[in-house]
Design goal:
mainly beta; seven-stranded mixed beta sheet
């Protein structure tokens, strides 16, 4: 079993920045794809960004490309999401997720492809 714990959410004004963290623990696998998703009230959970744990390659949803950066610190077993130039439409609960079974080349972007989830952290962007 893999445990994921997010932190770093909060309230920020439009144009501001936040950095989310996702600490991982528990069972280890040879490789992961780690992803960030978000879910706004009344909307489906949507993919935000993904990273290959071993190689560090990344991919993003078009809506956040150029504003958000996903990264990882292998020594700390932590994945980060740096969010800049935040907009009110970025307001959502943000979730960290792990897919230990898909190769990075699949670039999983659907929630069903991920097996482990954190509890979520609220991000609110005021206009």
């Amino acid at each position: 079993h893999v445990q994921l714990v997010e932190s770093g959410g909060g309230l920020v004004q439009a144009g501001g920045s936040l950095r989310l963290s996702c600490a991982t623990s528990g069972r280890t696998y040879s490789s992961y794809v780690m992803g960030w998703f978000r879910q706004a009230p009344g909307k489906e959970r949507e993919f935000v960004a993904g990273i290959g744990w071993s190689g560090g390659s990344t991919y993003y949803a078009d809506s956040v490309k150029g504003r958000f950066t996903i990264s990882r610190d292998n020594a700390k077993n932590t994945v980060y999401l740096q969010m800049n130039s935040l907009k009110p439409e970025d307001t959502a609960v943000y979730y960290c997720a792990a897919d230990p079974f898909s190769p990075f080349s699949n670039r999983p972007t659907t929630a069903g492809e991920y097996d482990y989830w954190g509890q979520g952290t609220q991000v609110t962007v005021s206009s």
